[in-house]
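S1.2 Input.
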Amino acid sequence: MNMWIPTEHEKYGVVLASFRGMVQHSLPLEIGDTVQILEKCEGWYRGFVLKNPNAKGIFPCSYIHLKNAHIKNKGQFEMVVPTEDSVITEMTSTLRDWGAMWKQLFVKNEGDLFHRLWHVMNEILDLRRQVLVGHLTHDRMRDVKQHITARLDWGNEQLCLDLVPRREFSMVDPDEISITELYRLMENRHRKKETPTPVSTHHLFVHLKSLMSSNLGEELEVFFFIYDSRESKPLSERFFVKLNKNGLPKCPEKTERQCTLFVDLGSADLRKDVYIVVHIIRIGRMGAGEKKNTCNVQYRRPYGCAVVSIADLLTADSKDDHLLKVYACNTESDWSQIHDNIIKKVNSRYNLSGTNTGLAVALQLLHGDIEQLRREYMVLFTRGVSVTKKLGFSDVIMPGEMRNDLYITLEKGEFEKGGKSVARNVEVTVYALDADGQILKGFVAVGSGEPGGDEYHTFVLYHNNSPRWAELIKLPIPVDLFHGSHVRFEFRHCSTKDKGEKKLFGFSFVPLMQDDGRTLPDGTHELIVHKCEENANLQDCARYLKLPFSKSNLPGNNQTLKGSKESLWITSFLCSTKLTQNGDMLDLLKWRAHPERISDSLSKLKEIDGSEIVKFLQDTLDTLFGILDESSQRYALKVFDCLVHIINLLQDSKFQHFKPVMDTYIESHFAGALSYRDLIKVLKWYVDRIIEADRQEHIQQVLKATEYIFKYIIQSRRLFALATGGQNEEEFQCCMHELFMSISFFLSQENKSLRPITQTQAVFLQSFPAVYRELLKLFTVREVATFVRETLGSLPTASQADCPLQAVKLHCIAKTVDSQIYINPESRCILLPVVLRVLQAHMQEQKDLVMCAHILTCMLSLLKREDTESTASEEVDLIVESVLGVLLRTILEVANRPHPPGPTLRPQIQDITGEFVSCLLALLRHMKDRHYQQLLQRFTSKDDLRDFLLHIFTVFRILIRPEMFPKDWTVMRLVTNNIIITTVLYLSDALRTNFLNDKFDYKMWDSYFCLSVIFINQSCLQLETFSASKRKKILEKYGDMRVMMGCEIFSMWQNLGEHKLNFIPAMIGPFLEVTLVPQPDLRNVMIPIFHDMMDWEQRRSGNFKQVEAKLIDKLDSLMSEGKGDETYRELFNSIIPLFGPYPSLLKKIERETWRESGISLIATVTRLMERLLDYRDCMKMGEVDGKKIGCTVSLLNFYKTELNKEEMYIRYIHKLYDLHLKAQNYTEASYTLLLYDELLEWSERPLREFLSYPMQSEWQRKEYLHLTIIQNFDRGKCWENGIILCRELANQYESYYDYRNLSKMRMMEASFYDKIMDQQRLEPEFFRVGFYGKNFPFFLRNKEFVCRGHDYERLEAFQQRMLNEFPHAIAMQHANQPDQTIYQAEAQYLQIYAVTPIPDSQDVLQRDGVPDNIKSFYKVNHIWRFRYDRPFHKGTKDKENEFKSLWVERTTLTLVQSLPGISRWFEVERRELVEVSPLENAIEVIENKNLQLRTLITQCQTRQMQNINPLTMCLNGVIDAAVNGGLARYQEAFFVKDYIMNHPEDGDKISRLRELMFEQAQILEFGLTVHEKFVPQDMRPLHKKLVDQFHLMKSSLGIQEFPAYARASPIQFTNGSPRAGRNSVANVLSPEGVARVVARRSPLSYPAVNRYSSSSLSSQASNEVSNITGQSESSDEVFNMQPSPSTSSLSSNHSASPNVTSSAPSSARGSPQLPDKPKHSRENCLSPRERPCSAIYPNPLDSTQRPVPHPAGDASLPRSDPNISTPDKVVKPAVSSWSLDTPLSDSNGKCPPVPPRPPYTGSPAKTRSQSPVMTSRSPQKSVVPPLTPSPTECQSAGLVSNSPMLSGSYSSGISSLSRCSVSEASGTETTPADHALPNSASSGSDEFFRRENKTPPPYCIHERNPRRQMPLPPSLSIHPNVDAPPIPPKPHQIRKQDTEPLRPDQFPRPRPIPRKVSQL
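S1.3 Output.
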């Protein structure tokens, strides 16, 4: 069997293909993974993937591509580093990191960056491929690497990754370089990234595309040049392009003739008054409109001009083409100035050359050096582009630049007519000729772009004897041809006749060089025009060269030529590096020819222009040293001065590039071997004269040139030594020592008032460091260092603090440290004391800190980390001793200095701080144990040591500030932290030794602990937030520094002993912050400290309340910041043993005597952490949702109930308030803020500033809270609650007599009443939500809530919203309670269905006359209980009739708080389950359908419906279902003998069902009557069908006609609304008679006692109608509606179950499903007709009446109330005829006495006798007309007269007024029983009822805007003497009166909310 063998060379590889790892012990691999190989066996490797080194396994060798690698730490912990280019390694790792982040960009929908990064990654991959191939040249490889690193840096910056320090494209290892150098690399890269260096050189690229014009036909010449309109002169040469007749380039294949680059534009040239000027010349006939047959001679004629400002190109898109407008002259004579006229907008002198004429040009500004452009725009230069130079030299003259260009501008000419009647057409031809008179071929250049020609023809101006051309030509004549050459100008007249001849009539010439060798001087020259004929021989130039050429050179006696009017003006300008126009320069260079002029020539050298000197620099220097060698005694001083002048000339920025030329001259061409003696002697002479000299300027100029003077001295001595074999060495040494002695003496002089030499000393110090390098050529390093030390040491030290010499001295020190002599260790030890002394002095005075930082950086960068030599150690000792203390103080001073306001100074301050910090870190890194020992031993006193430690701890805290380094400097931060922890470990011993026990210093230890805590909590050390690769690199290099510091904290804490009490509870918060770091080892170390704290606190005070309070406060703030996790909670709470000697905190506490309180604390903290963790996780989400609010509520209640932390409680109140405002939950926001309001009193106690509240009194803050809450109640349309607060605030204002605010508050209260009545409020839906499964947050887990939905939100929308909030949740599709498997599942399950609210405010909802606007509030506010119905079948299901077994499961949910409240949802506290039998279910179904029919009929009558379709559909559904057997199914199920025999207890319910079925028939008949009135014509057939089906329905029910009592009391729809008859007659009828009548009429047996009002058709619906319409219908047809047969029992107002809402039975109704609740299912309260009679609601002003309790079977209770048992819902028959609605009995079972009814008088109607019934009460003292019966009431009253049981139904219509009346009258009235009121009479009492119906609810007084009054007849008017009703009592007062006593199971549940809120 083969064994696994460790690999030797096969160590590193890349995966070629993915390996799934299906074999045992295999390691899955992904393509591209890098693996480290450990062992090998038979084609298999064993190893691990580098990104997950913990997972090891085997994989096939064939899947791996091996790569060379270098092995570190060979063995068990070996590391493999690939031996490839570092750039390749970085590329690979970076692309891997980018890959994961790139995918996240797609997920986050950052499309732009996603695509850009994708392109960059592909580009990097392509470049990587090129590098790996290895076929690139060295330069190309450099460019590719530069491109790669630029792309890597860009991507890292975009993805917010770390800045990578690089040197020469390779990553830098921080351990391999000095920290100061690392900081410089980071800073340079950061500065380069932030502020790109400005470019001073610019170039303009021009590409001519075409000339677009409609009237072309001739060839064109186009000239471009750059023009300065401020100076009115061109700045550049001309660029020349030829165009063909179509306006296109003549040579399109030659791109260099279409494109040019105007080079060397300075930044000053990019301004608005610099323009690109284009001149266009046409080649053709003299006149543009001449005929073609005139002549064939072509002339150059002006065509047009265009201009564009260069400044416009700075903002324009470089890729856009420009279309330039072309202008033409109005007068040809103005052509030379046309561009100026266009620029100055002199419109009278030019116009557009054509409407369609334009020049298409591409213009682009390029920036940077020309060589840089060649690399960046390779295509541009390779395809060909001409270069157009500036006129003259550029701003910087480069050595080696060769130019010899003569520019001539033909300005103008003056010519005579020549005997002609008109002016001439003059053309000038220009030739360049050599000394022999031969034409120089190709040296006449019109412009770049076209090659030079032999001659040049100017353009011709028509009939102009004074032409102005301003045409520029260039003559690039070589230097060797320049001597003897001249330029000739020939003048010809161009005839316009047929022949088109050009006749020569004169010429001019100008020689280019004078006899003395000077060239033609620059400037304007007036040339003489010599006349000649056409046949004149100009070939023999010798003949005319003897003639004068310029009028300025004519002798005085030649008056003939002087008086001539003909002249030619030209301007010449020479740009040459070889020729000169200066005679003094020529005299100096030719000094040997004229020895007598040497002195004058040397004196005049300083007056010569610098450009002339640098052109002949080498010749000039040779001349000077030649004179010095030959006449040193005579001219030494003057030659020295001239040399100084030339040296200082090269300091000028224009000529600074010639310094290398001088250096080259010194090294290669200088031959003055004897010059050093004279130079030393003259220099010493000047230095010795400094002290006595009155004027120092010349001496300062000499000292400025010290560097090059020494260069000449040293080179001269070297040449002499080489020539003589080193003779006179001692003499030279002696001279040099004497020179330095003189210098030292001069430097040691202090400033005197008469001869200030300080500035001269400063000038010398500035140039002195440049001498070191030259001295090293002849002296040893130690000798030079000695020179420098003595020279710098001679400077005076007692100078004034503000002396400028000190700054210069420091600069000199800086240059010294940068120099070669300091880099050498031998000389460094000599110079170091001087440098440190100067540096320390400046740092102590806080002067020139920038330079101090630079010096210190340079010094420390020379100390390599690996240096272990004794010299390096001694240097560290010296630096530590001199600088460390002052460096710490400097950092403290600079870091704490306030930032200056100027933005430019801030980076400088930051640089200083960073420089000093890097110096400190570098110094600390070089310090070893010996250095620390010596440092601590130097402190002679404890105070000094204490100050030092405090300083260094404070500085360390500054170093780890987030703003210390830029965000992406992670490399620098890690190095800093590594040094800090190393230093702290060294210094902690000193802390333990010197400041413990008797010498304990709290401040020292506190500073130490604070530093340690801040260190651990740094973001750059939180390795969990980094990628795996980054985390791995950090751990390999530094380890987890947090754990190291944590162990140190624990060790130091253990040493404290009894001094621990000093840090309790102060250090609880910081230590808790450390434990929240998600590092297990760190937590295991730190958590036992809390046990120690609790133990010591228990010993001191007997408890640890301080620990508990501090722990809880800090835990809240820290976890709110995002710290801590679930593991941390478990660590605090669990009993799992941890590593080392520390068990868990709970386990340690259980061993203590105080374990009970300790365990309680841990339990409390754990529960708090659960809530805080949930809160933190919720707050990470973006939008406000239910989770955030619910979590905050949970935390708020925890602080209130369990911790009693009032301040935290109030803070979370406001956090919850802000969340509600953000979510626009204004009602919930009000309830939330009310919690804080309830904690305050109306007192003047002063309150401190808190949160956003200022310092104020408690009264003021409570007032502010009240106003804010009222405002939010208003915004949430919860005006009823706002009214209560308004009243409370108004009472306060009234008590303080603040009537102004009282008035505002009363008006606000009144406005709320108006809004209640006028504005529409939506009734929200309510939903029950169950959260099941362990993955829900703690505050939701396995709990159920009821949620108040948003406006217009239905079940489907709510479900979707919840699933969006919990995207991982699974929606349960049933409403059954889940089992334990769901509860314990590691998942999230949501169970959602709609529920129906059960209102508590039944007194308001049951009161007659309360508008629906008011009732709607009480239906959905202050709701504790909710109902949900689920239908099911019990027993065997009858397939023929499913209603026999259809039961309803009714669930009632009770909440912990009522809705709405401080949240939109509250937890369910109690569930109650009852089952509704099939019979009860049938009753409810029919009741609900009857209610729906009543509502629709009412809406139709009151014209609320826009169309009648809803009523039609409802009637059709009920009638059609009944005809097809709907109601018959109920008969079959419940009216059969078997059911009655088997269920004797259901007798009353069966009777009730019969009543409802009969009632439904009456409603349908009346509904058909209404329907017939309003049905459209096209629906008449449907109506007829409904009528026919209704007759079938009646016959199927056995109803042939309604009984007499039904006809006598039909449905009461008074005035068109379904209200009861207000004064209906209730005649007594015996039960037996009823039974007989019913038996005769119908197979249905009616109940013996009719308990329900015959006129209660949906009072609630009528209220809604009256609220919407504003007033009742008053038309005659409403008052005089004809009666129709109808039943008399319409009384149900129950809300149906959401699942049981249909009126007719159907088999589909039995299946359970999630309800889609209809709108009207909210109406769960009783109708006003089902309330108790008015005897229960006595007049509040009548003390004789008392509230009567509801009996057990009170019909006024909601039938849907699940808390009432089934028998209780059956109302027993009344025992008296006085009240049928609500039979009341006293303790003896007898009815209370009935108050007498007052007789009605003054009515035109006949009186009649009535049985004793409840009478109506009226506030009127006068007699009221009788009420009219319902318009639908029948004349027959047989049933009424025979049924005493129905009398209460008539009284109830009137008795409903009693609740809202002010006073009540009682009395009896008897009328004949058989007398009925006439239908046609409109009664006044009916109008009175309508008026009284407006009586306000408990929160309303009167409507502010009374309705428009209807004109009434006198019989209906109300007596004016009516008392105004008082303000109704508050609802809670009414409830107390109306609802006591209740049954024990019916007491309302108290609301557990703070005081005062209960009023809401």
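S1.4 Remarks. Residues 85 and 170 are 8 Å apart (CA to CA).
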